[in-house]
Write a structure and sequence with these properties.
This protein is an alpha+beta fold. It contains 3 helices and 6 strands; from the N terminus they run αββββαββα. The chain is globular, with a radius of gyration of 13 Å.
Length: 114
């Protein structure tokens, strides 16, 4: 039986033009679009997802995610995906991140402002 994280990865791998690479730190799994990371995974349950400031504020306010523990002023949020009932919410945030980063990459912005 697939884990909830396996199900999550299967779904985000279906986002058009998504590439999975090894992340910059600690062997994380990085997911990118247009050469830019939109989320990465640590271990079996921790997601770090890049969001616009507005979406980040909403996700935190509604309890969908928490501040990134090491970069609280960045656009990254943290989510611990452990149960299947969290899957839809995590995929929703991942899709918002993907759309945000894809738009930035298409505009040719040299840097993502976090």
């Amino acid at each position: 039986m697939a884990s909830v994280m396996d199900l999550f990865v299967q779904e985000i791998a279906r986002f058009p033009d998504t590439q999975e690479t090894v992340g910059d730190r600690f062997g994380e799994r990085s997911f990118r679009v247009g050469g830019r990371e939109f989320l990465h995974i640590h271990g079996n349950s921790t997601l770090h997802i890049l969001l616009s400031r507005e979406v980040k504020a909403e996700a935190i306010a509604y309890g969908q995610a928490h501040q990134h523990p090491w970069a609280p002023r960045s656009g990254m949020v943290e989510l611990h995906l452990r149960k299947e009932d969290q899957l839809a919410g995590a995929l929703g945030l991942a899709r918002k991140s993907y759309d945000h980063v894809r738009r930035i990459a298409a505009e040719g912005d040299p840097a993502i402002i976090l």
